[in-house]
Design brief:
Helix 1 packs across helix 4, helix 2 crosses helix 3 and helix 3 crosses helix 4. A six-stranded parallel sheet has the order 3-2-1-4-5-6. It has two domains: about 150 residues, Rossmann fold (3-Layer(aba) Sandwich), CATH 3.40.50.1000; about 70 residues. Helix content is about 45%, strand content about 10%. The chain is globular, with a radius of gyration of 17 Å. It is of the alpha/beta class. Strand 4, helix 8 and strand 5 form a beta-alpha-beta unit. The chain starts with 5 loop residues before the first strand and ends with a helix.
């Protein structure tokens, strides 16, 4: 039986539905430099990562290496393109997810959001959804808050410290990408969950050997009761 004291959720593709706008923008910024990468390739090699690192990894996967100056320049282009992309973007959550978060918190489980986005981007998404600290979630940890991004466990460790949870076996980590699951495993979380609403397919998620794979997080409360 798994007792959960802290649930850590990735944002985009997991609790935030932003139609993959960030990765579409990342794809655009890279392809402006002469690449011809499709979105699936960008998601396969960049999903869940801090976005500067994602650019390096995507380019390296395509050509076997990356130019550090070019990667930095693409990252700067990406940030400007993303501001424009977000101006008129309608951001929502997935059906039943907000209610699931409320139920978790009502049962005494703390909720952390973590993301490979920088803090400004993450907060912009939350503001568009009208999610508030202390209501839908208890702490937000972004790429800006740690030295090492996913799959390193630093963001989960930061959430544990801020929420005073000291035993990894009481932590559930859920996300839509393989790297989310790897992050949870590297943090020794008691439960890791892949969800098929975002970057990776069920088959891809299963390759990382999570505890469970779900098609929706809406039923997570019921699942926890039977763990």
């Amino acid at each position: 039986m798994h007792i959960i004291k802290l649930a850590v959720f990735d944002m985009a593709g997991t609790v935030v539905n932003e139609d993959n706008i960030v990765y579409k923008t990342l794809q655009k910024a890279i392809n402006q430099r002469g690449f011809q990468l499709d979105l699936d390739f960008v998601l396969e090699h960049g999903a869940g990562k801090e976005k500067h690192q994602a650019i390096k990894d995507i380019i390296a996967a395509e050509i076997g290496c990356f130019d550090s100056e070019m990667a930095t320049s693409i990252f700067e282009d990406f940030k400007m393109l993303l501001v424009d992309a977000y101006k008129n973007l309608n951001v929502t959550s997935y059906k039943g997810v907000k209610e699931m978060l409320y139920a978790l918190k009502k049962s005494g489980i703390k909720v952390a959001l973590n993301t490979g986005y920088d803090s400004n981007t993450a907060q912009l998404l939350l503001d568009k959804m009208k999610w508030k600290l202390g209501t839908e979630y208890d702490v937000l940890v972004t790429a800006d808050d740690v030295v090492m991004g996913r799959p390193n466990p630093d963001m989960i460790v930061e959430a544990m410290m801020k929420l005073n949870v000291h035993d990894e076996k009481f932590i559930l980590k859920a996300g839509d990408s393989i790297i989310d699951i790897e992050e949870g495993k590297n943090a020794n979380c008691g439960v890791t969950i892949g969800v098929t609403t975002g970057a990776h397919t069920r088959k891809q998620l299963l390759s990382a050997n999570p505890t469970y794979v779900l098609d929706s997080l809406a039923g997570l409360n019921d699942l926890i009761k039977f763990m």
